[in-house]
Design brief:
alpha+beta, Tumour Suppressor Smad4, 10-stranded antiparallel β-sheet, 3 domains
Length: 525
């Protein structure tokens, strides 16, 4: 199908024929041999019916985000199409329906306008914002960057500003999720950790964990957001907020691996956590936790503290046991429920306040909602108290496939006991913006990448290790052992040192970790 419209490019007006297919929109100049341009469907953020306030004429506005010429970032292009025919409203509506049909992946013969109303009711997001994360810019990022983009896509949201540790986890344990199409965090990886654990502490955890998640990086470490961009060959460094928000708008759910972490304490009680990124003990965990006092410096705090920890290097006595993955081994995946593209549309012609001068002021429903939880004082929860607020092991969530922590180590596991500088296990390729920790990792490969550095490593080797993350060549440093595993057990022989789960400190006590393949879903393009 194609319709005629007036289109202005570089101050030149064209009469163009608009052709919409499943893959692209083509704007062909009438009576000219060359086409004006093509737009990839997946790069279109929103399509709006507008009205010229002075002339009362409808027109179509398309928000389009292609790569720049060097593919280093995406840039905004706004296309205004004014119908050339007599049936202006009908022509605009027809093109809008075709764009929505292609974007949502509906069949070619789909033309049911009532379906748009159904989609509209499914599109609201719940957005959780940690205003103190990283350099403290999350609130400004939400209002100045995220809300305008969601408005272009006409996606509504409810926003909650978290007030302290575990706020998001407690909130999601009881929140009615049926009114939301997805959950988005604007923070670092720690808030995503809270969200996952809150969902898996619900009685309906099997349903709740199917709700797709999005992350917009604003933390000191942004490993998940960086991994998502890398997996899609998307530009990240110049505008990570744009790249991540476009993932949420495009909204193709992708299954991702998770780690189940069981911890046992001296009083014989146990806690279960779920890790999206890492479990670590020793040098890297020490750097992560002890550098918190430099949080205002952003990710550079890790570099500064790494130098200090190399000067005062420590080793820790521990026993590490693991089930090594076989070559080509991959975990069993969970069944996936595919959903239409996240696209919230309106059924009436929209009336912008400033007509042609309007650029980023289209308004979707954005609500700052109150929360029943009492605010936390800044000093109310100290590091090391995270486990105290978690439910007892196995209350909800999936059960373990392996013997308990109190049981014998299985005969097919490898056990090493001795002094270590660090033990660090990761799921994803990046643990920070520029830290390619597990170069061979894929988001759903069903593997945990366990890195060991023993106590006889020299400071020179450790310096080489710490300065090679960006390229991923740290795995070639002689002191490093990177082992793909399905499960492992870590038993510290001392109470000293920092043990972290997704960068959050927990008590130094034995843990058993296992892979949960393709267990939760994230928004991707």
């Amino acid at each position: 199908m194609d319709e005629l419209f007036h289109y202005e490019a570089k101050k030149t007006k064209h009469l163009v024929r608009v052709e919409v297919t499943d893959e692209k929109i083509t704007f062909l100049a009438v009576n000219a041999a060359a086409w004006v341009f093509e737009a990839d469907i997946k790069d279109i953020v929103g399509c709006h019916l507008m009205k010229n306030v002075s002339l009362n004429d409808p027109y179509l506005r398309i928000f389009y985000y292609p790569f720049d010429d060097r593919r280093t970032r995406r840039r905004q292009i706004i296309v205004d199409l004014k119908p050339a025919g007599d049936k202006a409203y009908d022509d605009c509506l027809k093109i809008k329906l075709m764009i929505l049909r292609a974007s949502c992946g509906f069949p070619r013969d789909w033309s049911d306008y009532d379906t748009l109303k159904t989609i509209e009711n499914l599109q609201k997001l719940i957005i959780l914002i940690n205003p103190k994360s990283g350099k403290g810019n999350a609130r400004k990022t939400f209002t100045s960057k995220v809300v305008p983009l969601l408005s272009e896509a006409n996606i509504g949201c409810d926003a909650v500003f978290t007030t302290g540790p575990n706020h998001a986890r407690r909130l999601l344990k009881t929140m009615d999720l049926t009114v939301y199409r997805g959950i988005v965090v604007i923070s670092g990886d720690g808030l995503l950790f809270e969200v996952i654990n809150g969902l898996l502490e619900r009685e309906d955890w099997e349903t709740a964990i199917q709700v797709p998640l999005g992350i917009i990086p604003q933390g000191s470490g942004n490993g998940i957001a960086r991994t998502l961009a890398d997996a899609q060959n998307e530009p990240y460094h110049l505008d990570p907020v744009l790249t991540s928000t476009l993932n949420i708008i495009r909204a193709r759910p992708k299954a991702v691996d998770l780690m189940r972490v069981l911890q046992r304490f001296p009083d014989e009680s146990e806690k279960t956590y779920y890790a999206v990124l890492s479990v670590g003990y020793g040098l890297l965990a020490d750097i992560d936790i002890e550098s918190e006092r430099l949080r205002s410096l952003g990710e550079s705090r890790f570099t500064i503290w790494a130098v200090l920890r190399l000067i005062g290097l420590k080793t820790y006595r521990m026993k590490v046991s693991y089930l090594q993955a076989e070559p080509g081994d991959k975990g069993e995946t969970q069944p996936q429920r595919l959903s239409p593209r996240l696209f919230r549309s309106t059924t009436e012609v929209e009336k912008p306040r400033n007509d042609e001068l309007m650029r980023r002021t289209i308004s979707a429903d954005t609500n700052i909602i109150s929360d029943p939880l009492e605010p936390f004082a800044d000093n109310q929860i100290e590091y090391g108290d995270l486990a105290e607020d978690f439910v007892a092991a196995d209350t909800f969530g999936p059960s373990s496939k392996y013997s308990p922590l109190t049981g014998e180590i299985p005969s097919d596991w490898v056990t090493i006991e001795g002094d270590f500088v660090l033990v660090y296990a990761v799921l994803q390729r990046f643990i920070g913006t520029d830290n390619m920790f597990a170069p061979k990792s894929k988001m759903d490969d069903g593997l945990i990448y366990l890195l060991l550095i023993r106590g006889d490593a020299s400071r020179g080797q450790l310096f080489q290790f710490l300065t090679s993350f960006e390229s991923g060549t740290h795995v070639d440093v002689p002191c490093c052992e990177m082992i793909p595993v399905k499960a492992f057990r870590l038993e510290p022989q001392t109470s000293e040192g920092n043990l972290t789960i997704d960068g959050e400190k927990v008590p130094t006590a034995p843990v058993q970790v296992e892979i949960l393949p393709s267990f939760y879903r994230v928004f991707m393009r």
